[in-house]
Design brief:
3-stranded antiparallel β-sheet
Length: 219
């Protein structure tokens, strides 16, 4: 059963935005018309943005905060934006804010779909066997490492159920049940030096008046 055929079934029958995701699988005119970043200059009043470090949508909140701080329509709005980020999740996709050693915990995620590696509006399929370079931004995170802590990078072909699995057929999301197996090879040699960039805030650094929210990335 395809997702688009479940209009009368839970959860899609009662979830209007789910049908929007099916109909508009790229960053098209529909999404641009309701995207906040197209309206920053029209915002005249300050906004108090409340986010959670473990919220899957934190990156959007941070983007809106920085966007309105820089581009809101009045100086009053730009100079009085506030953001509060606490140890909260969104709908259960969370990580503990208190960790007892020894243990392993997921600090954050990042994702890119191969066909959307260059543009969210104009997907371009990849050619099997050809080498591609991907830059994956890990979402905003803040974690204090204690002496002896270690960081592990995990690369996966899928992250279901947090993200819909890629059927690897090129078909639009939710329109078919056909799938294909995809095999990926991560290169790490002189010609293809994969790397991880982790921004570090010194323990004695003073807090800036406007946070910059450096984001780690993998390449």
């Amino acid at each position: 059963m395809t997702v688009s055929s479940t209009r009368s079934r839970w959860p899609f029958g009662s979830c209007g935005q789910c049908q929007d995701w099916i109909k508009h699988s790229t960053d098209d005119r529909f999404w641009k018309s309701i995207s906040p970043d197209h309206y920053y200059t029209k915002m005249k009043i300050p906004v108090l943005d409340v986010e959670g470090w473990y919220d899957a949508f934190l990156a959007g909140g941070v983007q809106n905060f920085t966007g309105m701080t820089n581009h809101a329509g009045t100086a009053y709005a730009r100079e009085n934006q506030h953001i509060v980020i606490g140890p909260w999740d969104h709908i259960g996709w969370g990580r503990p804010d208190s960790i007892e050693a020894p243990t392993v915990v997921n600090l954050n995620n990042g994702i890119v779909r191969a066909s959307f590696r260059k543009s969210l509006s104009h997907p371009t399929p990849i050619t099997p066997g050809k080498i591609y370079r991907y830059s994956i931004t890990v979402w905003p995170s803040a974690y204090e490492l204690a002496a002896g802590d270690q960081i592990r990078l995990e690369i996966s072909s899928s992250d279901y159920p947090q993200f819909a699995p890629n059927p690897n057929t090129g078909a639009r999301f939710g329109t078919t049940t056909r799938t294909r197996i995809a095999r990926q090879t991560v290169l790490h040699d002189r010609a293809h030096p994969s790397e991880v960039t982790l921004p570090i805030i010194p323990a004695d650094a003073s807090s800036p008046s406007t946070p910059t929210f450096p984001m780690p990335s993998t390449k």
